[in-house]
Design goal:
Distance between the termini: 40 Å
Strand content: 5-15%
Number of domains: 1
Number of helices: 4
Strand order of the largest sheet: 3-2-1-4
Helix content: 25-40%
Number of strands: 4
Length: 142
């Protein structure tokens, strides 16, 4: 029996993917290093990007504001995230030790890398852009 680490993601902190097993890095097994990849299939993102394209045609302060776009999508289709998880806004980790009595987590570190399109638009108010670069994803389902 071995220790296991899982991860899952959510776009809105309410609807979550299933737990995905991360794999123990045998080169660093003594310190409990795990590796893995969470990815979203392209077909899961298609409807979302269709909505984003519609949003970008609206007269809004910033057509590249995904938080505002998500709010707009949910006004049109309140149950959208009930059947689609098209991006990762939040991550959760679950550690299950093989022997619950002998483990005490002393530290936890996650290294996360991601990619995103370089295509964007400038906001009508240039201050919005400066602020958004420093604000993490914060949309949470009502």
């Amino acid at each position: 029996m071995s220790d296991d680490l899982y991860a899952r993601y959510s776009p809105d902190f309410k609807h979550w993917s299933s737990w995905q097993a991360l794999h123990r890095d045998e080169k660093n097994a003594k310190v409990g290093v795990f590796t893995g990849e969470l990815a979203i299939p392209e077909r899961e993102r298609q409807k979302y990007w269709g909505y984003i394209e519609q949003y970008q045609k609206l007269d809004v302060p910033w057509t590249a504001d995904e938080e505002a776009a998500v709010g707009w999508i949910l006004k049109k289709e309140p149950d959208f995230f009930d059947h689609s998880l098209p991006f990762m806004g939040y991550l959760q980790f679950l550690f299950e030790p093989s022997n619950h009595e002998s483990w005490r987590i002393e530290s936890f570190e996650a290294t996360i890398s991601y990619g995103m399109s370089g295509l964007s638009s400038e906001p009508k108010d240039k201050n919005i852009w400066r602020m958004r670069d420093q604000i993490p994803w914060r949309f949470k389902a009502p």
